[in-house]
Design goal:
Keywords: Transferase
Protein name: Phosphotransferase
GO molecular function, one term: transferase activity
CATH class of the largest domain: Alpha Beta
Radius of gyration: 21 Å
Distance between the termini: 52 Å
CATH architecture of the largest domain: Alpha-Beta Complex
Pfam families: APH
Bound molecules: 2-acetamido-2-deoxy-1-O-phosphono-alpha-D-glucopyranose, magnesium ion
Structural class: alpha+beta
Shape: globular
Order of helices and strands: HEEEHEEEHHHHHEEEEHHHHHH
Number of domains: 2
């Protein structure tokens, strides 16, 4: 972080550059995150710059977090909700010129993982995300603001893809020919989704919208789930967003960046643990329609992410940072392979779901 800016931001929170150690942490693609260790305190903090290209109205994030945190502290005072620490002037965020920063408490004795190495981690993480939605079941989701309009709207993502397709050059399209075909061939996922959206028992709920494993803090020795973090995309959505993104990111031992496609396989025990963890919180409140869509949630999120990577590639990579030119195309390939793995294992996965819905 630029030195001048650093001291301005720190001052807003009552720290100085001289008495605070700052180190960059985190692996997210969107926000920049720093660990702040004031020399005079045991406590540490997380300082994060909000990416305003992605989050065009940062105050919407602050609004949502305040509304949810007020509700939770009134109804579930023991729940650990990581809300921003106000500036010394009492603001929810620090605004410096066009930049937005916020300070969060660092939760000691916890770890955040980048990959799951044990199915129990899938159980613990899924339980944490399920718990957040369960505690907010009676909270009026419509009072929240969309922090990214259309974020998990598959119809909009598909439209963006079609638009990118018509705007890209023949040579780019030739490079992505197979993935474009995959995207078009899987449009039935969108049609299926649309056929459900008007059902009255497919409610908007409060969703986290970014349920990857690094967004759950686990106790560092026992690996018990402690809390969820990265709350910028908490907003109204369908339950398929959270469960689906867990399927997308927990089931394979390799991430969306893996290029060796025969490594993209589904770990069935992780699926089972994830379903058990999520249902341990959500089974009692999911509607019949939602229960029907459990496995579909994975298809929905994996397809959407494949479309997003492919669209970004066709557009010249304005959104997802890349370390080589065709990385977003490779990521799309990876996601289409994962989508195919869901289809290959469908029967077994659906049996697991049904078994766990029964008891
Ligand atoms: C982005 O920055 P990160 O890694 O938390 C993206 C998610 C994608 C993910 C894919 C705001 O999340 O929706 O699933 O990349 N977040 C936003 O890696 O676009
Ligand atoms: Mg995120």
């Amino acid at each position: 972080m630029e030195l001048n800016l650093a001291s301005e931001v720190l001052k807003t929170y009552g720290f100085t550059k001289e008495n605070t150690i700052i180190t960059q942490i985190g692996t997210g693609l969107i926000n920049r995150t720093y660990l702040l260790s004031p020399l005079a305190e045991q406590k540490k903090y997380i300082l994060q710059q909000i990416n305003t290209t992605v989050f065009k109205s940062p105050w919407a994030i602050a609004w949502n977090l305040k509304a949810i945190s007020d509700y939770l502290s009134q109804h579930f005072p023991d729940y650990l909700f990581i809300k921003p620490i106000p500036t010394i002037e009492g603001e929810e965020m620090a605004q410096l010129n066009e930049e937005f920063w916020r300070l969060l408490p660092f939760v000691p004795d916890t770890v955040s993982l980048d990959v799951l190495t044990d199915s129990r981690q899938a159980f613990e993480a899924a339980k944490q995300f399920g718990k957040l939605s369960r505690l907010l079941n009676n909270f009026d989701a419509s009072t929240l603001k969309p922090t990214i309009p259309g974020f998990h709207d598959l119809a909009w993502r598909y439209e963006q893809f079609i638009k990118a397709l018509s705007g890209s050059s023949e040579s780019i399209k030739a490079q992505a020919e197979a993935q474009i075909e995959d995207a078009l061939n899987h449009k039935h996922i969108l049609d299926y989704y649309i056929s459900y959206t008007h059902r009255s028992d497919f409610p908007d709920r409060v969703m986290h919208h970014d349920t990857k494993i690094s967004n759950v803090l686990l106790e560092e020795e026992t690996f018990d789930g402690i809390c969820v973090i990265d709350l910028d995309t908490i907003m109204p959505g369908k339950f398929i967003s959270d469960l689906g993104d867990m399927m997308r990111t927990y089931l394979c031992a390799f991430s969306e960046n893996e290029k060796e496609l025969n490594r993209i396989k589904i770990r069935i025990p992780y699926f089972e643990a994830m379903i058990k963890g999520y249902l341990s919180e959500m089974k009692a409140i999911l509607t019949e329609t939602e229960k029907e869509l459990i496995l579909f949630s994975g298809r929905y999120m994996i397809y959407m992410q494949a479309l997003r990577f492919l669209t970004d590639f066709l557009n010249g990579n304005p959104y997802y940072p890349i370390s080589y030119p065709i990385q977003n195309l490779d990521r799309a390939k990876n996601q289409f392979k994962l989508l195919n793995e869901i289809a290959v294992n469908e029967k077994e996965l659906q049996d697991i779901i049904e078994e766990n819905l029964m008891y």
